[in-house]
Amino acid sequence: MALQIYAYILHKDGAVDDTALEMVAAAGKLDPAASLTAIVAGSKIDSVCKSLTASFKEVWKIDNDALSYPNSEVIRGLLSRIIPKDGIMLIAHDHFGMDLAPGLSVKLDGTYLPDTVDFEGVEGNKLKAVRQEFGGQVSTHVMCDISGGAVITIRAGAFRAAEVPNAGGAVVDKTADALAGGLPGGTRRFVEIVAAEVGDVDITKSEILVSVGRGIGEQENIEIIKELAKAVGGDVSCSRPIVDAKWLEKSRQVGTSGQTVKPKVYMALGISGSFQHLGGIKGSPFMVAVNKNPKAPILQVADIGVIEDMLEFVPMLTEKINELK
Hints:
Layout: E1 4-8, E2 11-12, E3 15-16, H1 19-30, E4 35-42, H2 46-52, E5 58-63, H3 72-82, E6 88-92, H4 95-108, E7 111-123, E8 126-133, E9 138-145, E10 150-154, E11 170-173, H5 175-178, E12 208-212, H6 222-232, E13 235-238, H7 240-244, E14 265-269, H8 275-278, E15 286-290, H9 298-301, E16 304-306, H10 310-324
Parallel strand pairs: 1-4, 1-6, 4-5, 5-11, 6-10, 7-10, 12-13, 12-14, 14-15, 15-16
Antiparallel strand pairs: 2-3, 7-8, 8-9
Helix pairs in contact: 3-4, 6-10
């Protein structure tokens, strides 16, 4: 029997998050015969829901002015009223998803499976999945019971979004069902949005990013990254350890605690590829990764992976590019 899978879809300023199509890919890997339904919560979200009908057969809408800013305390109460007990709920593994998912699994009395990077199939009521531990250095193969449903968070970039034929889906208004009994209470309240600082370069607008991580070793070595960025016509960005060391400014940090970027080409040099970093990369760019650790998670999502010491490889790459120019 095909699974009933539901995907909670993130959106902002009327635009659907790139993880929506990753959810389609994840559901297809989980059960190719599954019935997949998108769920969208927010205020004035008709255009968001309509855009999703191209990728989903059915889109459930929960539309209320009180949901103009997402509050996981409220949304988990709404979702628990409309998701069947044996349903499989997919949620992006970002800050909001990590806040929403555990409590939702409790309300649904279902299995909670966080930060999933792959599925290996379903045998009876048992799901085989792959997670990563110790900063992505170890892959863990787990088997869990999904007979009573499950809430699963999906790591950004783990399931490569593919072209989806027009699903010709329909929007179903579930607002009345979700709000039956009133709006769930919560202890939090929205205060304000604080925009991230913009430095001398706005990396959110860059088409080519040359990003450096802990593997650079020392601050003076960042110069070779700048030379490569100049050669390819890109901008320099970085992972969090570089900002923590104060080697580059915060405005150049890519990740869930930094900037969200959407380049056409992303070069990850000496970056392990934690979900916090990958969560800041949208749009499925062409990704080139250089890392001397063959088990680095970044190599699993890169289009081209080079297992070399970046301090030796990057200067040679820069030289060859300049020769071609």
